[in-house]
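Action item from last week, closing it out:
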Amino acid sequence: MLGVDDSRPVLEIHVERRTVRPGCPKCGVRAHLKDQRMATLVDLPCFGKCTRLQWHKRRWRCPDADCTNGSWTEEDDRIAGSRLGMTDRAGRWITEQVGRYARSVNEVAKELGCDWHTVSDAVVAYGEALVDHPNRFTTVEALGLDEVLMVRRGSWRRQEFSTQLVDVGRGQLLDVVPGRSSTEPMVWLAKRGKEWCAEVRFATLDLSGPYRKVFTLMTPGATQVADPFHVIKLANTKLDECRRRVQNETLGHRGHKADPLYRCRRLLTKAEERLDDKGREKLMGLLRAGDPNGDVATMWQAKEAVRELYAHGDPDLALQWVTQLGTDLTDKDYPVEARSLGRTLLRWKHEIAAWHQAHVSNGPTEAVNNLIKRVKRAAFGFRLFRNYRVRALLYAGKPDWSLLGTVRPALG
């Protein structure tokens, strides 16, 4: 250490490396000192003041006129990583603060008295090395896929999505890939290799065609399981569509608070066994008043039949149940919403019935989605997804934080 300057609001610590004269990396000739410049690095606060490390860096040159190496600047990873404006110890500290304890980048930047981008770049550099560590996860028995809205961009607020790959058994976020198509998840699984994919026994998903394609092609030995929540949600959605259609056909306008079908909208989505005598009587009375053709009542019974599917645990009976229910609902005498629901049930009947065999769902994937929604999307251009991915994995990917002191920052 050369000295400390505490005469300014920011404390400055001046350091210099003790080293022998190096040889040229290319030809080996002993180098000559060309000049010495000072590099200012953000450091951890000291004595309650923001601190800057002033590193007096030497610049060397090769004296051999025939050598094409020219000059170079000394580097030392113990002080700071290449192309980072922060010391190594500060970079590791802020990575844990932002990634593990969910502090905002702006809050940490204010504490260190530096720019937002300085902190963000360091978090990405150290965090990427930590979350890409090969031992962060091994084989996965149950794999889940789901999408989440990543950001709205541009003047038209264009939506951009990301797909999360989650170890459903451990509730661990494995990785985040851009988009919600089948392409990027297939690329990710291809990089894992056929042996890794062969270890996946169950594949959980919502009723998404692209994700079913991913599992069909990349994990053909896995049993695909349709998430029960999304199956029942679909039935409730079709019921609500039917209620709104009948409302417009009978009264010519959307629901008003005094309209029978609008008054029973909450009762329709409530489980039948949770309705007491008073609630059931109210629901039946409102349906008689506002549903002359019985379309809404039919859809309500169809929704309850879908719910009843999960009241037992027999896989064979479940497959027979959903097949018969889907076939019945596609009859031309049923409302259009019921026919649409029936076609979907038939198209997904094996995945729906598989829940009774596997008893795994996409619930842990949805929980991880809720976690990473807390990660602020505050980056620009090509850095947006990289920043988002690293911070999401630091927060929900369960990295081994004991390795933070040994990993080298991923630069570039």
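Closing note: Strands lie at 3-5, 11-15, 32-46, 49-61, 71-73, 142-153, 158-167, 172-178, 202-205, 223-226.
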